[in-house]
Amino acid sequence: MTMSEDERLPRILVVDDSRMVRASIVKHIRGRFEVREEADGEAGWEALLVDPGIELVLTDIGMPRLDGYGLLERIRASRVSRVRELPVVIISGDEDESARERALGLGANGFVAKGSGSVELLATLSSLLRLSRAQSELARSRVALAQNSPVDPESGLVTPAYLAHRATQAVAEAERRQADTAALVMELDQYDELVARHGSHVVQLVLRKLGRLITERIRAEDTLSQHAAAQFALLSSPGADRASACAFALRVRASVEKLVMGYREERIRVTLSIGVANALGDGRSAVNELLALAAERAAQARAAGGNRVFADAGEVDAAEIERQLARVPSIDQVLQQLRSGATEGLSAKVPALVAALMPLLELIESQHPVGLPLARLKALQHKGGGDHIDGEATRTSV
Fold first, then answer.
1. Each residue of 109-135: pLDDT tens digit?
2. Contacts for 166-172: CB closer than 8 Å, 24+ residues apart
3. What is the DSSP letter of 112?
4. In the listed set 284, 302, 326, which residue is the last one of a domain according to the structure?
5. Looking at the structure, do residues 282 and 256 belong to the same domain, yes or no?
């Protein structure tokens, strides 16, 4: 007969090079906890990687191969949240106050003196386990809430599930309007190095700052999600073509590059690798394919050294994007020219103007059919050989 998860005794890893100390601890907590014993920090670390049932670590400081400080550092820097968030209690001997301060600074949760009686030891371990389980339950509740809510309670951004839902709608709308839409995947460079140096908590604060920075630069119709641990996904509303999407990506990259964040008197600078994909330009009508293509290009940008923007033709040339945008006339400027009678040179701009106004013309014809020759106008816009950009407004947001 096997026990259910709730009936099993909590499993504790005891790491100490003294067999007598380990035996004493086992004697005191037998019947309340299940104990796994290891004789040094290296063996303890290996046990943590292969034994997901361990809920608490009780470790000595002075040990061969890997001491308690080293084991504690590895635990707190682990990329596996199950390991990183384990409560760690130090078996304290005659160490001075500086040793305790160092252990606390590395993330120790408590201390028990060697030779402590059953009451003190059980009280310490039970208290930490209750706290740990409560935090785990809270984390699971947050995940459940996020799955049933369009907004992630931690980041304040939409959830990946809602992004996929909204993306399906946006792509379908773009197809109806015969307009383009863009997906951007923005990935934090040197994520592992930042976690190792500053800790996961600090990196999460950095990611929240980046999320706010990006949110401030998008339109209300655009949708931003934290797609993975170090990755944001942005889906534009219909109308964002390749040039405007790449221009936005370049602006975000430049803003992040200039950003300097402070934490405990330390300056933190980060960069982003960004991939851009477009529904029309890349021939992708399925949302998952569009996002996957943008993620693949973000990976290419990171492999090329990071702090880059990649699209269909490889790394995006900022100068070329500026030239493409410059070819799009401002509707306001054209109207001012017409009002003033200065019509010279406007004929050459007609194809680009038609391209810029086509979404509006299609909307008018769909809601108030007046017989606009849309097919002839579309043929006219292609005669100019210009890019399909939504005019001046799309230069500032995706």
1. 888 887 777 787 888 888 888 877 777
2. 166/223, 166/235, 167/223, 167/235, 167/287, 167/290, 167/291, 168/287, 170/223, 170/235, 170/236, 170/237, 170/238, 171/279, 171/285, 171/286, 171/287, 171/290
3. E
4. 326
5. yes
